[in-house]
Amino acid sequence: MKNKKESISNSQTDSSVNSTSNASASKLSVTTGQLSERWQALSTRDRLALSVLLVFLLGFGGIYGGYVLHNKVAKQQRIFDNKVAELFRPWWFGN
Asked: What is the pLDDT of residue 81?
């Protein structure tokens, strides 16, 4: 009997998840359609300019983000190395 209740509960949960995902998918489909129509309505020059701008911004963001991330990781590595060196200094030098 317990299995039937669980299966009913699971099917209700699954149907609510499916209806939510279907609603999200339909909203995404509508938005994608609108964007596609608007993109096609642009002139070739404007599409090219927006494409170049998008590539530049993504490239700049990726390069700058990588640079910032690298600096933060390097700083944390130096802090860790100093802590380890302080921990083993007495053992290493016999103090």
From this structure: 93
Residue 37 is classified by DSSP as H
What is the per-residue burial (b if ≥16 Cβ within 10 Å, else e) of 48-72?
eeeeeeeeeeeeeeeeeeeeeeeee
pLDDT digits (tens, 9 = 90+) for 4-46: 555 555 555 556 566 677 888 888 888 899 999 999 999 999 9
DSSP state letters, 44-91: HHHHHHHHHHHHHHHHHHHHHHHHHHHHHHHHHHHHHHHHHHHHHHHH
Q: Which residues contact 43 (CB under 8 A, 6 or more apart)?
A: none
Q: Which residues contact 90 (CB under 8 A, 6 or more apart)?
A: none
